[in-house]
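ping. complex inputs:
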Amino acid sequence: MSIEFDNNLPIYLQIMNYMKKQIVIGKLKAGDKIPSVRELAVELQINPNTVQRTFQELEREQIVETRRGLGRYVTSEEAKIMEIKKEMAGDLIDRFIQGMQELGFQNDDIVSIVAEAVNDEDRG
Amino acid sequence: MSDLLQLDGVSKSYGAKRALNSVSLTIGSGKIVGLLGSNGSGKSTLMKIAAGLIPNYEGHVWINGQPVGRTSRSLTSFMPDQPLTESWMRVKDAIAFYKDFYADFDTEKANDMLKFMRLERDARVSSLSKGMQKRLQLTLALSRNARLYLLDEPIGGVDPVARGKILDAIVEYYDENSSLLIATHLMQDIERIFDEVVFLKDGELILHEEVETIRANNGQSVDEKFKEVFDDA
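pong. complex structure:
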């Protein structure tokens, strides 16, 4: 696992996003065991308390679950993983639309530009 | 009391020079704290007072609820900026020296760390490069079973490879029941291992904050915050 950290943003949020992405793209699968706090802290060269906080937040969002005495696992609910995927897509779209609006495009224009771009890509 | 280190109105002067000016500070258990300041800001003085190595100062200092002194010294492990080892020593002699000196020295952990640090037991201490010296000093300091580890400039003057290895070792061998106070004037790479940072300037405490709070509230790295605070020099 390797992350290019941006020291201007909270590190725990960056690890959360990284792990969510790993789950969405299937690198970490539903029901997979995730590394321990210590393992991940050593691997990423960061403070163990930061990793602890990341895992707590992921648990709060029910993305990972702790099994007593066994460790932490990615949720086995596929619906939850779909939910993260939609959430991440939503974030991307929000940022894109905002960026386009700042450039002065109207909503109709944005839709047609996107449709065109997608078609272009389909044709190769 | 869960406060591991507590300073209340601590001042220290060397002749006319005021090294620390009424510093009050509390550090909890299980934290890695960066003590940041430029050269001459009072970092080493604060560390030495906490380590019980400077007896004459104003104010009060407690380690784990006990006034600093003879008994508190068994709770603190200090890694000085200048090595304590003698030039005739080989690495294994330095280990034996610490083992004789400190009842809480964990030889097994030391041997494990030597391997991790790629230090040869038979190498002469005086022949070690600066980076290797720091690795040895860190091994000696962290191999004691203390509650508060005071590391003075553990990455000062070492190349990026050795710096990475030292940071790895700190994360790998850090025990969550203890706390680490790390004095440094270099922010690069190291800010990610801190829970909190303390800024010292001309002997005064000017900031004590959680690093994630600095990043979340200001969108600033600790390095940027540091430059902002110290840039009027």
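Chain B has a mean pLDDT of 92.
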